[in-house]
Amino acid sequence: MKKIVICASASFEAEILDWKDRLEKKGFDVIKYPTKILGDLSRGYEKEFSQHYDAITKTDILLALNLDKKGIPGYIGAGVFAEMAFAIGLNRAVNKKIEVCYLNTIPEAGLPYSDELRLWKDLGWIKPFRSQ
After folding, report:
1. Which residues constitute the domain of residue 123?
2. Phi-psi group of 89: left, alpha or beta (phi > 0 → left; psi -120 to 50 → alpha; rest → beta)
3. Is residue 132 pLDDT above 80, yes or no?
4. Which of 8, 16, 104, 118 could pair covalently with 65 via S-S, beta carbons 3.0-4.6 A apart?
């Protein structure tokens, strides 16, 4: 059973839970996904951040749920971009084998790091998610 970490904006709570269920039904072990922070934001954020990055070090697949947001189809926010970069860094620096995937087409423009995403795609460091 492949382990998977879902990365997305916590504002997509319903979509994240839908994808978690879909992936589990297909036999994936969803080991981490974004959750809303309740209570003290600073303390909650620190805990969620640490747990999320720890899970990335243990996963087989990182799935960026790049949904439409801020008028940009396939939006990838700064947090998800950082998580993708972290997984790619692990792959390149310590020879991890994390598949870094995205759900929807990568935005060609509109993000400060669109050029980087296209380069990663061209290099084969990120790819479209195929659940089969």
Report:
1. 3-128
2. alpha
3. no
4. 8
